[in-house]
Specification:
Largest sheet of chain A: 7 strands, mixed
Number of helices of chain B: 8
CATH architecture of chain B: 3-Layer(aba) Sandwich
Helix content of chain B: 40-55%
Number of domains of chain A: 4
Oligomer: heterodimer
CATH architecture of the largest domain in chain A: 3-Layer(aba) Sandwich
Strand order of the largest sheet of chain B: 2-3-1-4-5-6
Number of strands of chain B: 6
Radius of gyration of chain B: 16 Å
């Protein structure tokens, strides 16, 4: 799904000689500066896992990416699965057969996996299984910022929230033990600021375990024959055992005065923010911080003792008031004699949306404690705001120079206009979701979940009975196609929906870091695998498939026009061109020389009003104020040549690279 | 001036996606970690990473409990700019009157500027703004130095050398050289060490 890592830089750094992964160092006790996700991977290795699976999604992708790098050495089976549901199923197969397994996903992915997970939680597993979910508060790299922790409560799965990088490793290792104690999945929930940040981590020992898989056929795992309520009862009864295991957990602790004026109860990155806020405000003598690493179920005895310290409580956590609501529920059940004043998201002192930070926590504490807090003195603040307004130019989202998606959208925009209709383009998850923005010529009108562009299109294609006459085009990337488009495509074909699917095939899961998928010829560990052909799959459904190279803008536009005219059934166009970043990482430098023919460009005096830069918006094609004409920025131009078709004067010309 | 006695040093390394701020945050972070510091590195970025602004927040402390991955408002002790307008952008949120800036002078124009929708400030305007928001700023044409070495991607290493040259960080240059040697081998090691040394000299030569 969306990437939050600076992967353009990552590609460059790889070319420059990338740092070796820390987790491969097997020296016990060695100190490493690990990313939260690398620490989780290391924790899984220290727990002796055999299987690791995921579908890529920021901020979770590096867990499995890190394990893939050591798969051969450590005899791990590491898989980029087709989607999150299958990822959990593949991991569960190991955990049902006596081999420890980890599966990782982002918050949106958990929704995809939930159907299986909600049933797996009933049957349980017989070997350690850990579900890592990376939430994305603030939606930095996501279409939503939903809080995954609710699922742990619904399914009564032990829930751990690492607050530091060391804990990310240590908790993951412990999660496997917890999982085996209750024969059920254990959930580790991180957020972007833990998963994607780095900090000191002391490595533990690597285990010497013999991994042996066998499915015991004397047992079965199924909620059939009226067993569902019984299994449901067993699932909830496991809670008591988890509570006992959590009571003495070193991941729960209190720092502060014996009886603080205000007690902060914090989890995950919220604990880091709280500790820093108290330190920065010098309130260590008045405010105490209770850290909860085990947030579902709550450790009852421990909490009863700790909550008795104060009457004012502030809950600090990322996204929803999950801990806050559970604390209130706990108090109502267990501490009825005590009176508390609660602060947090319900009281409005922090917000149940957006990302937290130290400043927001300091503001909340200052309000509760009635103290004055301003981050900077007024004079500096005024100057800073003035400078930001007048001297810092904006730098917003864009498709990369040479991006094949820009070319596809350009051709589609023209074709839809020429077809004369008010075409509806539905989008999907990937770089090409930027098709809603000017960089994709604002063609895309819906973006929701993986595969939803095709599903919504399928529905639009059946509105013909209600005077619906608009052409319908769904956009989906190659990885998205395999993940969730196929069922929606079948739906459209079978219902004879009058729609077009455009598969933007750029040869990998580009946005999250080029992970392979079933259309690739290798797997996560680099082993050769059979490639599944998108066009053959579509042809088997009886669909006529057109394949175009979007860099050939004329042919692409013509194909779109032809397909738009062929009304009636579901059609597929595969727009195939390797991601420009992949291409550049394999073969640096432009593929052709593009230049402006100065004699042809009429510049400021042309009636086009800078059409090439104003509308086409490629970072490689700029307006040179000095000459008053268009100019190619050779530092970034990839030589894709798509802009040659843009100029009404044919002033943009291309020539072969020498 | 050095931040040696400060219990917590907040360094922000900023630039445009692809300039390599992440690599140098790791080089410096690991060097400090090996000296017994607790280090946290976080990242902030604009609407997306594609050509957008990116910043690595490196928080270096002697305390056991790590600091959070994003610097609070007004707490950046040092801003290392791989691109000048991005260094200025960081100051507007994270700067205070005692902030120091070490920045590359070569602008990278955003798409808005490139297509004529926004203005890129003149270099003396940038310097004037920087002076208003910092205690001192050093300017180095690191891109030119890197191009002189035959590879613009070395800009980040030149800037790392410049940062060490200011003496703001309580870190001996040999510790960074050690990290460079652990990261790069062969010809790449030689050229990276050279870039670091030229960056270092660009500042120490001025004193």
């Amino acid at each position: 799904m969306f990437s939050g890592t600076n992967f353009a830089g990552d590609v460059l750094n790889r070319a420059e000689g990338k740092r070796t992964m820390g987790i491969n160092a097997d020296k016990f006790g060695s100190l490493q500066l690990l990313m939260g996700n690398e620490a989780i991977a290391r924790g899984a290795i220290e727990a002796g896992i055999g299987v690791a699976t995921a579908y890529p999604g920021t901020p979770s992708s590096e867990v499995i990416a890190t394990l893939a790098k050591v798969a051969k050495k450590l005899n791990l089976y590491v898989e980029w699965s087709i989607n999150e549901k299958v990822a959990v199923e593949v991991a569960a197969a190991a955990a049902l057969s006596g081999v420890r397994a980890i599966t990782a996903m982002k918050q949106n992915g958990l929704n995809v996996a939930l159907d299986f997970l909600a049933n797996l939680a009933l049957t349980g597993v017989n070997k350690g299984m850990v579900l890592m979910v990376g939430d994305d508060p603030g939606g930095l790299s996501s279409t939503n910022e939903q809080d995954s922790r609710h699922i742990a409560k619904i399914l009564d799965l032990p829930l751990l929230e690492p607050a530091t990088f060391q804990e990310a490793k240590d908790m993951t290792k412990w999660a496997f033990e917890l999982s085996e104690e209750i024969s059920n999945v254990c959930m580790v929930r991180t957020v972007t600021r833990i998963s994607h940040a780095r900090g000191n981590v002391v490595l533990g020992e690597l285990p010497a375990v013999e991994k042996r898989a066998r499915f015991d056929t004397s047992k079965y795992y199924a909620g059939i024959g009226g067993m569902a309520p019984k299994l449901h009862q067993i699932m909830h009864e496991k809670r008591k055992k988890i509570v006992d295991l959590f009571e003495a957990s070193p991941f729960n602790s209190y720092l502060g005065p014996e009886t603080p004026e205000l007690l902060i109860v914090a989890s995950g990155s919220g604990w880091l923010y709280s500790m820093e806020a108290v330190r920065t405000l010098s309130l260590g003598k008045a405010v105490g911080v209770l850290k909860l690493g085990t947030t579902w179920p709550l450790p009852e005895q421990f909490l009863r003792t700790q909550l008795s310290r104060a009457e004012k409580i502030l809950a600090v956590e990322e996204v929803d008031p999950f801990l806050e609501a559970n604390l209130k529920e706990f108090i109502a059940d267990n501490m009825t004699g005590m009176r508390f004043t609660f602060f947090g998201k319900s009281s409005g002192h922090t917000k149940p949306y957006g990302e937290l930070n130290v400043d927001l926590v300091m503001q909340a504490i200052a309000t509760i404690m009635s103290i004055n807090f301003t981050a900077r003195d007024a004079a500096y603040e005024k100057k800073a705001q003035e400078v930001e307004k007048t001297c810092v130019p904006p730098r917003t989202s864009q498709l990369c120079p040479g991006c094949p998606h820009r070319a596809t959208y350009w051709a589609l925009k023209d074709a839809l206009r020429m077809a004369g209709g008010d075409g509806v383009v539905t989008g999907d998850i990937g770089c090409y979701a930027m098709g809603v923005l000017p960089t994709g010529f604002a063609q895309v009108k819906t973006v929701h979940a993986m595969g939803s562009g095709m599903g919504v299109a399928s529905g639009l294609g059946k509105l013909d009975g209600f005077h619906f006459e608009q052409p319908v085009v769904a956009m989906a990337g190659d990885s998205t196609f395999f993940h969730a488009v196929i069922p929606a495509l079948l739906n459209a074909v079978h219902s004879e929906a009058d729609v077009i699917l455009v598969v933007l095939d750029n040869a990998g899961t580009a946005m999250t870091g080029f992970q392979p998928h079933p259309g690739s010829d290798t797997d996560a560990a680099g082993e050769a695998r059979p490639r599944i052909s998108i066009e053959k799959l579509c042809e088997a459904l009886g669909i006529a498939v057109d394949v175009v190279d979007p860099y050939d803008i004329e042919a692409t536009r013509k194909t779109f026009l032809g397909v738009l005219a062929r009304k009636g059934k579901t059609r597929v166009v595969i727009s195939r061109r390797e991601c420009a970043l992949i291409r550049a990482s394999k073969q640096p430098g432009p593929i052709s020389r593009v230049r402006i023919a100065a004699d042809k460009c009429l510049g400021d005096s042309c009636g086009c009003n800078k059409y090439c830069t104003r509308v086409f918006k490629c970072p490689g094609l700029i307006w040179d104020k000095d000459s008053g004409k268009a100019k190619i920025d050779e530092a970034v131009c990839t030589g894709c040549g798509v802009c040659l078709s843009v100029c009404p004067q044919s002033a943009i010309v291309g020539e072969a690279v020498q | 001036m050095s931040f040696a006695d400060k219990g917590l040093i907040n360094l922000i390394i900023t630039g445009v996606g692809g300039q390599g701020n992440i690599l140098i945050s790791r080089l410096l972070g690991e060097a400090f970690m090996n000296e017994g510091y607790t280090v946290t590195i976080g990242e902030t970025y604009g609407a997306t990473q594609r050509g957008g602004s990116v910043a690595s927040h490196v928080r270096i402390s002697r305390e056991r409990i790590p600091y959070s991955p994003v610097t609070p408002k007004g707490k950046a002790d040092i801003v290392l700019g791989l691109e000048p307008s991005e260094a200025l952008r960081m100051l507007t949120t994270y700067g205070y009157a005692g902030s120091y800036v070490v920045t590359n002078t070569r602008p990278i124009r955003s798409l808005e500027v490139a297509v004529g929708e926004a203005e890129y400030p003149a270099s003396d305007t940038i310097a004037a703004c920087m002076a208003q928001l910092s205690k001192r700023a050093w300017y180095i044409n690191a891109s030119e130095v890197a191009l002189g070495l035959g590879n613009p991607l070395l800009t980040n290493i030149v800037m790392t050398g410049a940062l060490l040259g200011t003496g703001l960080l309580p870190l001996d240059k040999s510790k960074v050289e050690h990290q460079l040697k652990a990261t790069f081998k062969g010809d790449k090691q030689t050229i990276n060490l050279k870039a670091f040394d030229l960056g270092l000299g660009s500042i120490t030569g001025r004193k």
